[in-house]
Design goal:
By secondary structure, the chain is an alpha/beta fold. The chain contains 19 helices and 27 strands. The two termini are 42 Å apart.
Length: 593
C-alpha cells in the first residue's frame, strides 16, 4: 500500500499516475480544499504528526510514502522522514523543477535572514508573495514603523482569520483572483502597487516563481527570495509521472500491472551524458538525468564510461520494461569527442543502421538516429558544453544481427538498428495486459463522468488532438490504444461511451482502412497496392508509386488529390470501426505529421 502526501499540483499529478494502476492507495491532504477525483485512491483529510502518521502506516500496511507536499512544508517533510526512519519505509519525493538561481535576486537562507536583509537594505515598501502563513515569519519587517508592506493571499475567510490573528492590518491584504498566474498579469498587478521590493519563495515552476521574478524586475522592483529548505538525503527524487511510475515499479513490484521502459533514444542520451561528464569533469557516474521530449527529467543508470585518445565513451543498457522489444537488454555506447564547428554531428557506429531511402525525415547516407533522440542528445551537449560542438558516434554491439529480425531493411535502414523514441518512454505491448490497462483507464474515465472518449496511438497524436479539441477536456478522456484499434473501439462500446474520437496517423490509417484492426508492424505492413487502389477510386490524378513509408503520402498529393485521398482513407477507417460501436457516434481524425 502507498501513502501520498499531497495538497499540491505535484500531489494531484502523483495521485492521477497511481490511480491509473487500478490498485488501492491513500491520498492525504491537510484540508479538503483541493479537488482531486480518484477511483482507486482513498482520500484522507487532516494533518498528521509523526505518531499519527506512524500509526496510520502500521494499520494500513503502508510500504512506500510519496512526499508531494509543498517545498516549504518543512514540518511535513520532517514528519515523513521520522516515520520512514522508524518503520524503514522508502520515500519518493515528487519534486518540482526549479530554474537556475538568478544572480540578480537577493537570496535569503531563511525568513529571519530575509527580515535582516530587508531592514539592512532600508527597504520601506514591500510586496510579499510568500503566502498568508508567512505573515508571522516576516513580522520583524512589517511591524517596524515606517515600513509599508502588502501581502497577497488567497481570497478566503481562513486567510483573513490568520492575518488578523497575527495582527496584520486587513487593509494591506491583496487577493489572488486567479491561481493560474501569467507574466503579463503579474506585471499589471505589481505595477499597481509599485513596491520598492518584492519578496517571494523559491517555489519552482509550478509555483510560478519565474513569472513573479520577471514581472518584479520589469516593474523596477528589487527581488528577495527565500531559498527552499533542503530535503532529507534518503528521499528519492522524481520529477514527473514517468519517474514516479518507474520508482514505484521498483519499490512496490506489482502495483502497476505492467512495467514501462525507456527507448533506445533515451538510453543513447544517457550514454552521451555519461561520456561528457567523464570527458569534461573526469566523473564516472553511476546514473545520470535524461530530459524526455515532454520536459520531464528521469534518472537512468549507466553501465560504465571511460576515455579514448580523442574523447570519451559512455554505456547504458536498454530497459524496455514489460514490452517484448527486441532491443531490450542491449548495450548502447556513445563515443563523444569535441569539435570546433559549434555543431553536434552524429555518426553510426557498430550495430547502428545507415539510411538508404528517403521518407524517414533523415539524410540519406546518414545514421539512423531519429530526430527525437537527436534533439535529446543535442540538449545534453548544450547543457554540459554551452555553445560547444561535439561529434557523437552511437554503437550497439550485436545491432547488425538484431536488425535482420526487424522491418528496418524494408524501410531502407541497413547495417543495424535505428535509434528511435518519440516520447522517450516504452509502453508495454503484451496484448492481454495492455488491453487490461486500457479497460482500467476507461473505468476511470467513466467513473469521472467522461462522455467523449478520445483514443489515439501515443504521445504525439495525443498532443495534436489536445490542440484540436482545446482546453478544458479532462486528461482521463485521452487513452492510448497502441496498435489495438479494434479492441479499443469495442471496449469503448462495452463501457457505454456514446461518443468516441479515433485519432490516427497515416501509417496506421492505411492499415486500418484495409481491414487490419491490429496495426502492429509485426502483424501487418503497408499494402502499396491497396493505397494505389484507394487513390484510383477516389479519382486522384496522381497514383502514388515510389514511396517507402506511408508518411510520404502527405507530400505526394496536390491539394485536391489530398482532399480526395485522405478523405477516402478516413471514411474507410470509420467504416471498419463503426460496427464495433453500434450504439455510439464515431469520429475519425487523421493526425498529420
Amino acid at each position: 500500500m502507498i501513502l501520498v502526501i499531497g495538497g499540491t499540483t505535484e500531489g494531484r499529478m502523483a495521485a492521477q499516475t497511481l490511480d491509473a494502476a487500478g490498485t488501492l492507495f491513500h491520498y492525504s491532504t491537510k484540508g479538503n480544499i483541493q479537488d482531486v477525483e480518484l477511483c482507486n485512491g482513498v482520500r484522507i483529510c487532516g494533518g498528521m504528526d509523526s505518531a499519527a502518521m506512524g500509526e496510520f502506516c502500521r494499520r494500513n500496511g503502508i510500504s512506500l510514502i510519496v512526499d508531494a507536499a509543498h517545498p516549504f512544508a518543512q514540518g511535513v517533510h520532517a514528519t515523513v522522514d521520522a516515520v520512514s526512519g522508524e518503520l524503514s519505509l522508502p520515500v519518493i519525493r515528487y519534486e518540482r523543477e526549479f530554474p537556475m538561481r538568478d544572480k540578480r535576486i537577493i537570496w535569503c537562507s531563511s525568513f529571519d535572514d530575509a527580515v535582516g536583509k530587508l531592514n539592512n537594505g532600508k527597504i520601506t515598501s514591500l510586496l510579499a508573495l510568500t503566502g498568508v502563513n508567512t505573515i508571522p515569519k516576516l513580522r520583524g519587517y512589517w511591524s517596524r514603523k515606517g515600513n509599508l508592506c502588502h501581502f497577497r493571499v488567497l481570497d478566503r475567510d481562513e486567510s483573513r482569520e490568520l492575518a488578523a490573528k497575527a495582527g496584520f492590518p486587513g487593509n494591506r491584504l491583496l487577493y489572488l483572483k486567479d491561481e493560474a498566474i501569467t507574466l503579463e498579469g503579474e506585471k499589471e498587478f505589481i505595477a499597481k502597487i509599485s513596491p520598492e521590493a518584492v519578496i517571494t519563495k523559491e517555489s519552482g515552476e509550478s509555483g510560478f516563481f519565474k513569472e513573479k521574478v520577471e514581472a518584479a524586475f520589469a516593474c523596477g522592483a528589487k527581488v528577495f527570495a527565500v531559498q527552499r529548505p533542503a530535503l532529507p538525503e534518503s528521499f528519492v527524487p522524481v520529477y514527473g509521472p514517468v519517474g514516479l511510475r518507474m520508482e514505484v515499479e521498483r519499490l512496490v513490484p506489482g502495483f502497476f500491472p505492467l512495467r514501462i521502459g525507456l527507448t533506445t533514444g533515451s538510453t543513447a542520451t544517457a550514454a552521451v551524458r555519461g561520456a561528457l561528464r567523464r570527458l569534461l569533469h573526469g566523473e564516472e557516474c553511476r546514473s545520470v538525468f535524461v530530459v524526455l521530449p515532454q520536459g520531464e527529467r528521469v534518472r537512468m543508470p549507466l553501465k560504465g564510461s571511460g576515455t579514448t585518445d580523442d574523447g570519451a565513451w559512455g554505456c547504458a543498457t536498454k530497459y524496455g520494461g514489460d514490452d517484448p522489444d527486441a532491443t531490450n537488454g542491449y548495450d548502447i555506447i556513445a563515443q563523444v569527442k569535441l569539435n570546433d564547428t559549434e555543431e553536434v554531428r552524429f555518426f553510426a557506429g557498430e550495430g547502428v543502421g545507415t539510411v538508404t531511402l528517403p521518407g524517414l525525415g533523415l539524410e540519406v547516407g546518414g545514421p539512423a538516429i531519429n530526430n527525437g533522440p537527436r534533439g535529446m542528445m543535442m540538449r545534453v551537449v548544450e547543457e554540459e558544453l554551452p555553445g560547444g560542438g561535439a561529434d557523437i558516434t552511437i554503437s550497439v554491439p550485436g545491432g547488425r544481427e538484431l536488425a535482420a529480425r526487424t522491418f528496418n531493411p524494408r524501410v531502407g535502414v541497413t547495417g543495424g538498428i535505428s535509434i528511435i523514441g518519440t516520447s522517450g518512454v516504452v509502453r508495454p505491448f503484451s496484448k492481454e495486459a495492455f488491453l487490461e490497462s486500457i479497460s482500467r483507464e476507461m473505468d476511470v474515465a467513466k467513473a469521472l463522468g467522461v462522455e467523449h472518449l478520445i483514443i489515439n496511438s501515443g504521445a504525439k497524436s495525443e498532443q495534436k488532438l489536445k490542440e484540436r479539441v482545446g482546453a478544458g477536456v479532462p486528461p482521463q478522456s485521452f487513452i492510448h490504444y497502441g496498435n489495438f484499434i479494434g479492441d479499443a473501439v469495442r471496449m469503448a462500446s462495452e463501457h457505454g461511451f456514446g461518443k468516441v474520437t479515433l485519432g490516427i496517423m497515416i501509417g496506421k490509417a492505411v492499415k486500418l482502412a484495409a481491414g487490419n484492426l491490429d496495426t502492429h508492424s509485426k502483424v501487418v505492413t503497408v499494402d502499396k497496392e491497396f493505397v494505389q487502389d484507394v487513390a484510383r477510386k477516389a479519382g486522384c490524378n496522381v497514383i502514388p508509386d515510389n514511396f517507402t513509408l506511408a508518411r510520404e503520402l502527405w507530400k505526394i498529393f496536390g491539394e485536391e488529390d489530398a482532399r480526395r485521398f485522405f478523405g477516402a482513407i478516413r471514411e474507410l477507417c470509420r467504416q471498419q470501426c463503426s460496427p464495433l460501436l453500434p450504439e455510439g457516434e464515431l469520429d475519425v481524425v487523421l493526425v498529420e505529421e
